[in-house]
Write a structure and sequence with these properties.
The protein is α/β, with parallel strands linked by helices and about 280 residues long. It has ten helices and eight strands. Helix 8 packs parallel to helix 10 (about 255-270) and helix 9 (about 225-245) runs antiparallel to helix 10 (about 255-270).
């Protein structure tokens, strides 16, 4: 069978990364031909102008209406030509020329329905961000125990599966987890499919993000009891201390660790209690 890969790149205010990301994508050495489709969500920086410097990419017009991740993903999938869909955020910069081949390999081998890649922290990443990335990705052993975990920052799936079972268009976070729970695909981690992708969130940004994730997770799994959130915050803080103590350069982040974890867990719990999650 002759395959074609469609690489879907979503962007919003990603001028710092989009050029490097697209250069890396077009430099891939892959056994299968690929196309690149980009869709920008109303960037106010130079992202649209930078996208326009890549004539080999197809720029999809921004669809009307409010942004919902699942809605945008379904729109892009419907406009793709390939039988294999690769999702890669505009700020997730592929590392090396074999990222694409490594990401789709489990699909071609018939051992997985969905794959996701290895997200490496950026050089400026805080120590706690580096620790979280090692835990979520790294050798993949920890994340393999998490419920339906994978990340669309860099991932691949069969287009037919995505058309037959589209993403939920009504939730703002965790659309990948919701899709996986509903469809129970075979998920494979591709550690050699590496991208550079991380965020040094402020406490305000953590509050907003974890409130949204808590709201979505309550719809997917049901609300999380406060005691479980508190236990989770305490356990993660202990893991933070264990990571930071052997690394003197990271000691300045020790006071931040409990506050960071409390913020994440409390707002995750608070988002799960929102009236409209049912």
């Amino acid at each position: 069978m002759n395959h074609l890969v469609s690489i879907l790149v979503r962007s919003k205010n990603d001028e710092s990364f989009v050029t490097a990301t697209l250069h890396a994508i077009f430099a891939q050495k892959c056994d299968i031909p690929f196309e690149v489709l980009c869709c920008d969500d109303g960037s106010t920086d130079r992202t649209p102008q930078l996208l326009a410097t890549f004539p080999q990419a197809t720029i999809l017009p921004r669809p009307p209406g409010e942004y919902y991740p699942g809605k945008r993903l379904n729109y892009m999938v419907s406009n793709a030509s390939g039988d294999i869909i690769v999702f890669n955020n505009a700020d997730a910069v592929p590392q090396g020329q074999n990222w694409l081949q490594n990401l789709i390999a489990p699909l071609l081998a018939g051992t997985a329905d969905v794959t996701y890649g290895n997200q490496l922290p950026r050089p400026d990443a805080q120590f706690l961000v580096r620790k979280d990335h090692l835990r979520a990705f790294g050798d993949g052993k920890t994340a393999a125990k998490w419920r339906f975990f994978f990340s669309l920052a860099t991932a691949a799936a069969w287009r037919k599966d995505l058309l037959d079972n589209p993403f939920d268009e009504t939730i703002r976070y965790s659309e990948d987890v919701e899709w996986a729970r509903r469809n129970t695909p075979r998920i494979a981690y591709a550690p050699e499919a590496r991208v550079e992708h991380s965020h040094n969130y402020t406490l305000a940004e953590l509050r907003r993000r974890f409130y949204g994730e808590g709201h979505a997770d309550a719809r997917i799994f049901g609300p999380t009891p406060l005691w479980r959130e508190l236990v989770g915050a305490a356990m993660e803080t202990l893991r933070d201390f264990a990571f930071l103590l052997p690394r003197p350069a990271g000691w300045k982040e020790l006071p931040l660790a409990p506050l960071r974890r409390w913020t994440q867990r409390y707002y995750h719990w608070k988002g799960g209690r929102a009236d409209d999650h049912a």
